[in-house]
């Protein structure tokens, strides 16, 4: 068994095998995301500039997770460097593709919120942030990844015979 750049054990597999991630790292990332999104929600009206910065940072984090993979996102790196060594190896690993898709969904909501804030449409920003926050909280608190489930449903639908 080899180790990924983030310290996660990766079973030896062929080149077509999907990357594997520690599910605890996904929940950690969702918890940090929840804090950032909650802070952004709370600052939309009283300090729009602060909300813009927070949403901008979260948008970049989502983009890195969506395009490079969750192991490369800043929250994934913090988990791998500081948290995971204190926890030990996970009981099992998960396919990285569903969480990467979930990051892309989060990116979509963050972009909508960012554009809405920049355009002076705080209600649209609040709605987009609220949807993203609910999804992040579901993952952080109970381990239910809404974006991952959407990914799996889409995969099942695309592989069904016509």
Tell me what you see in this structure.
With 162 residues, the protein is mainly α. It has one domain. The protein is built from six helices and four strands; from the N terminus they run βββαααβααα. The chain has a two-stranded antiparallel ribbon. The longest helix has 23 residues. It is globular and about 45 Å long. Keywords: Membrane, Transmembrane, Transmembrane helix. InterPro entries: DUF4395. This is DUF4395 domain-containing protein.
Uncertain residue ranges: 1-6
Give the overall shape, derived from the CA principal axes: globular
- Rg over CA atoms, rounded to whole Å, is 17 Å
Supply the number of helical segments: 6
| Residues in helix, % | 55-70%
Strand order, sheet with most strands: 1-2
The residue-averaged pLDDT reads 92
What's the layout of helices and strands?
Elements: E1 2-3, E2 9-10, E3 20-21, H1 23-43, H2 48-67, H3 74-87, E4 94-95, H4 97-119, H5 122-142, H6 146-159
Helix pairs in contact: 1-2, 1-3, 1-5, 2-4, 4-5, 4-6
Task: Quickly describe the structure.
The protein has 162 residues and is mainly alpha-helical.
Descriptive terms for the model:
162 residues, mainly alpha, two-stranded antiparallel ribbon, 6 helices, 5% strand, globular, disordered N terminus, transmembrane helix, membrane, transmembrane
């Amino acid at each position: 068994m080899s180790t990924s750049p983030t310290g996660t054990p990766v079973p030896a597999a062929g080149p077509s095998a999907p990357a594997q991630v520690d599910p605890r790292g996904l929940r950690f990332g969702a918890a940090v995301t929840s804090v950032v999104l909650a802070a952004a929600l709370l600052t939309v009206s009283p300090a729009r500039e602060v909300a813009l910065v927070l949403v901008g940072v979260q948008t970049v984090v989502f983009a890195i997770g969506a395009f490079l993979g969750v192991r490369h996102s800043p929250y994934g790196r913090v988990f791998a460097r500081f948290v995971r060594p204190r926890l030990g190896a996970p009981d099992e690993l998960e396919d990285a593709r569903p969480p990467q898709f979930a990051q892309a969904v989060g990116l979509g909501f963050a972009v909508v919120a960012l554009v809405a804030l920049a355009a002076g449409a705080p209600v649209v920003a609040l709605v987009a942030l609220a949807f993203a926050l609910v999804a992040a909280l579901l993952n952080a608190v109970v381990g239910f990844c809404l974006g991952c489930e959407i990914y799996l449903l889409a995969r099942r639908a695309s592989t069904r015979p016509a």
